[in-house]
Design goal:
Number of helices of chain A: 0
Largest interface: A-B, 23 and 25 residues
Shape of chain A: globular
Radius of gyration of chain A: 14 Å
Structural class of chain B: mainly beta
Distance between the termini of chain B: 34 Å
Strand content of chain B: over 45%
Oligomer: heterodimer
Shape of chain B: globular
Radius of gyration of chain B: 13 Å
Number of helices of chain B: 0
Largest sheet of chain B: 7 strands, mixed
Number of strands of chain B: 11
Order of helices and strands of chain B: EEEEEEEEEEE
C-alpha cells in the first residue's frame, strides 16, 4: 500500500545551526502533510501543516517545503535550540478517507550545545 | 490546562487479563482517535470515532475494542493482552484535520 516514510532516522546538529528533516511520501492523493514533534514520554505535538496545493509554508522558526514532483516533504528549523531535541514525524491526511491520518517513521533530532 | 487526559499513565496487566484505558477531552472535538506506538516507531492508528460513528482500521486485531459513551470520553479495551501488545497507547482528538491534539499516552506493560 502507499505509505509515508523518512530518509534519515537520526540527525545531530549544533545549537544555533539550521536543521532539515526530510520525508518521502507516495500517496499523491493526500490533502495535507503535517509535521509533529514528540518529546520523550509525551504525545506528539502539532508543529505545522501544508496543503497539497501549496509548496511552502512558514511558521515561527519552522518552514515546511512540499515538492510534489518528487513526492518529498521537508521541515526546516532555523537556529535550532536544545529544546528542539525530539523525534519528528511527518504525517499525511486524506480527507475522503474518513479523517484518517497516517504517520511516517520518525527522525530523532539531537541538538548539541 | 489539560485538554486530552489519559488514565492511567502507566498500566501493568497480566497476559490474557482484560484491561481498559481511558481518554477524556475538554475540547469538545467530534473526532477521537486511538493510536498504538511501540518503541522507536511511529504511532499506528487503531481506530477512530467521528461523533458516534466507529471507524476501524483493517489491520487492527479483534482483540482491540473501543467505546465512546459521549463526546468527552473514549475507552480502549484490550480483551486478552499479549506480550506483543505492550506499547504506548495514545489518544488524540480533532475538530477537523489536519491538526490533532494528543494526550500524554498510557504506557502498557504486559507481564
Amino acid at each position: 500500500g502507499e505509505s509515508v516514510g523518512l530518509h534519515l532516522p537520526t540527525l545531530s546538529v549544533q545549537e544555533g545551526d539550521n536543521s532539515i528533516i526530510n520525508c518521502a511520501y507516495s500517496n499523491s492523493a493526500s490533502d495535507y502533510f503535517i509535521w509533529y514533534k514528540q518529546e520523550s514520554g509525551k504525545g506528539p505535538q502539532f508543529i505545522i501543516d501544508i496543503r497539497s496545493n501549496m509548496d511552502k509554508r512558514q511558521g515561527q522558526r519552522v518552514t515546511v517545503l512540499l515538492n510534489k514532483t518528487v513526492k518529498h516533504l521537508s521541515l526546516q528549523i532555523a537556529a535550532t535550540q536544545p529544546g528542539d531535541s525530539a523525534v519528528y514525524f511527518c504525517a499525511e491526511a486524506v480527507f475522503y478517507n474518513n479523517n484518517d491520518m497516517r504517520f511516517g517513521a520518525g527522525t530523532r533530532l539531537t541538538v548539541k550545545p | 490546562d489539560a485538554m486530552v487526559i489519559q488514565n492511567p499513565r502507566y498500566q501493568v496487566t497480566q497476559f490474557g487479563k482484560p484491561v481498559t484505558l481511558s481518554c477524556s477531552q475538554t475540547l469538545n472535538h467530534n473526532v477521537m482517535y486511538w493510536y498504538q506506538q511501540k518503541s522507536s516507531q511511529a504511532p499506528k492508528l487503531l481506530f477512530h470515532y467521528y461523533d458516534k460513528d466507529f471507524n476501524n482500521e483493517a489491520d487492527t486485531p479483534d482483540n482491540f475494542q473501543s467505546r465512546r459513551p459521549n463526546t468527552s470520553f473514549c475507552f480502549l479495551d484490550i480483551r486478552s493482552p499479549g506480550l506483543g501488545d505492550a506499547a504506548m497507547y495514545l489518544c488524540a482528538t480533532s475538530r477537523e484535520l489536519p491538526e490533532q491534539f494528543f494526550g500524554p499516552g498510557t504506557r502498557l506493560t504486559v507481564l
